[in-house]
Amino acid sequence: MTRYYFDIRDGTGLYPDEEGLEFRTQREAEVEAAQALADLARDLPTADERQDVSVEVRTDTRHVFQAALIFSTSGPTQ
Fold it and tell me: What residues have CB less than 8 Å from 70, skipping those under 6 apart?
């Protein structure tokens, strides 16, 4: 099993995961990252104050992938 670390990055900085979680496959780590983003999305402030947020996933030896929640608007909301 591989230990994956799920660091959170937003507009205020990087918050490293000091403990990590063990998974058999990278796919399981990808699902965990997606669930973490969904949890973060539930706690976001109002639309005017939202920031992009990402989960940067690494092992003890390398960066593996990044999953991001990006907010982009094309104009005023109604």
Answer: 52
pLDDT, tens digit (0-9, with 9 covering 90-100), for 1-54: 999 999 999 888 999 999 999 999 999 999 999 999 999 888 776 656 667 899
Is 32 within 8 Å of 4 (Cβ atoms)? Answer: yes
The burial class, CB within 10 Å (0-12 / 13-18 / 19+), for 30 is: middle
pTM for the model: 0.84
Query: What size, in residues, is the chain?
Result: 78
Which residues touch 8 (CB under 8 Å, ≥6 apart)?
A: 14, 15, 17, 36, 40, 53, 54, 55, 56
State the DSSP H helix or E strand holding residue 15, giving kind and residue range, or none if neither: strand 13-15
Look at residue 36 and give its three-state secondary structure: helix
